[in-house]
Specification:
The complex is a heterodimer of chains A (108) and B (122). By secondary structure, chain A is mainly β. Chain A is 0% helix and 50% strand. In chain A, the strands form 2 sheets. In chain A, strands 2, 4, 5, 6, 9, 10 and 11 form a 7-stranded mixed β-sheet that branches. Chain A has a 4-stranded antiparallel β-sheet with strand order 1-3-8-7, with no helix packed on it. Chain B has 122 residues and is mainly beta. Classes of the chains: A mainly beta (108), B mainly beta (122). At the A-B interface, β4, β5, β9 and β10 of A face β5 and β10 of B.
Chain lengths: 108, 122
């Protein structure tokens, strides 16, 4: 199975800060990489798919990049409603779906 | 509006069975593959199982293979997960998720339910 190594595991930042999370795949997954946001008591939300495509309705301050094995997720200007846990996920066609370990994001 | 509502969770003893359901509405159910994903306490997300739009392609995580069975009823717009021989490590919040494509090889989960909690304990 493809292993996804996500970092950092937790992050504390101020409103307005630029925040970046990285995700490394154990093998080349081309652009089969998605990002999700989880909040307690709510349905998880798809933010970015196919590395950099913004899901409908997701604010433009969220973005993604990378290819192959190295990927990034960025919030350009952190807002209070962005607190939660973020996960990367690979969906390579020849391998079981796997997620990163998650990044817990808090406001300073 | 797309809605996915899970039910059937609860407290169950090790070795027993439980059947989860997911009621879908707001979209043409048989146009999409569906999946179960779980979140164990203190751990990360884990994909559990997926089923294609016509049940022709089914897959499981190794951790549940042989114990869990996924199925769907496209007339009732419902997804199911039959969980047998439950273990303590199956304790988790179980989410139903829609794949953005008919095939389970799509892997982009564009809508999720809020989950149903399964606790396996004696």
């Amino acid at each position: 199975d493809i292993q996804m190594t996500q970092s950092p595991s937790s992050l504390s930042a101020s409103v307005g800060d630029r925040v970046t999370i990285t995700c490394q795949a154990s093998e080349d997954i081309s652009t089969d990489l998605n990002w999700y946001q989880l909040k307690p008591g709510k349905a998880p939300k798809l933010l970015i798919y196919d590395v950099s495509k913004l899901q409908t309705g997701v604010p433009a301050r969220f973005s993604g990049g990378g290819s192959g094995t190295e990927f990034t997720f960025t919030i350009s200007s952190l807002q209070p409603e962005d607190i939660g846990t973020y996960y990367c996920q690979q969906c390579d066609k020849l391998s079981p779906i796997t997620f990163g370990q998650g990044t817990r994001l808090e406001i300073k | 509006e797309v809605q996915l509502v899970e039910s059937g969770g609860g407290l169950v003893q090790p070795g027993r069975s439980l059947r989860l359901s997911c009621a879908a509405s707001g979209f043409t159910f048989d146009d999409y593959a569906m999946h179960w994903v779980r979140l164990a306490p203190g751990k990360g997300l884990e994909w559990v199982s997926g089923i294609s739009w016509n049940s022709g392609h089914i897959d499981y995580a190794d951790s549940v293979k042989g114990r869990f069975t996924i199925s769907r009823d496209n007339v009732k717009n419902s997804l199911y997960l039959q969980m047998n021989s439950l273990r303590a490590e199956d304790t988790a919040l179980y989410y139903c998720a829609r794949d953005s494509r008919p095939s389970i090889r799509g892997g982009v989960f564009d809508f999720w339910g809020q989950g149903t909690m399964v606790t396996v304990s004696s």
